[in-house]
Design a protein that fits this description.
The protein contains 6 helices and 6 strands; from the N terminus they run βααβαβαβαβαβ. With 175 residues, the protein is of the alpha/beta class. α2 crosses α3, α3 packs parallel to α4 and α5 packs parallel to α6.
């Protein structure tokens, strides 16, 4: 099944823009690119399972894109790879989105009941190790989980689609 499985990585919302504005044209572009990438992997390459780490930001946005594709192509499945059970306690509006998505997942794997150091990296490695394609939303920051996951996927020989975004942290006082 690994051959027909893809996973996602991308930053938390505050690492893209602060304050978060989901109506921003760049965020809308990212959503459209995610939807199109997922659709292409399904229709052109036969992908059927998409693994999501269920973090605020790109993970949940990507999961919603999978669910949109699944509404059109019912043989698509969404799997949640949750690093620790307490991750479900997310601030609103992300908490509601998280729970709505979780209810629609075909598979749910919880790696740890409580937070343990390294569990986020363990989650990312699990998803890459069980996928043949990584879809990344990446703003060029060489530090952090997204960059580390891309590097890990490259070392593992996993194909990747990188959706670049110029967004970086914006402060309220900046234009």
């Amino acid at each position: 099944m690994k051959e027909l499985t893809a996973c996602f990585t991308g930053p938390r919302p505050e690492k893209l823009m602060n304050p978060w504005n989901e109506k921003n044209p760049e965020i809308q572009r990212i959503k459209q690119q995610l939807f199109q990438t997922i659709t292409n992997l399904v229709t052109q390459n036969g992908y059927r399972l998409f693994l999501c780490g269920m973090a605020r930001g790109i993970d949940l946005i990507a999961a919603e894109a999978v669910l949109s594709v699944k509404a059109m192509l019912s043989d698509v499945a969404l799997g949640a790879v949750i690093p620790y059970w307490g991750q479900r306690l997310q601030p609103e509006p992300w908490g509601k989105r998280y729970h709505d998505i979780l209810l629609k997942c075909n598979q749910v794997l919880v790696l740890h009941q409580a937070y343990v150091p390294g569990c986020l990296i363990e989650r990312n490695h699990y998803m890459v190790d069980h996928s043949s394609h990584l879809i990344a939303v990446y703003n060029g920051n060489p530090k952090g989980g997204t960059a580390a996951t891309i590097r890990y996927a490259e070392k593992q020989g996993v194909d990747k689609t990188i959706l670049y975004t110029p967004l970086t942290i914006l402060r309220k006082n900046e234009p």
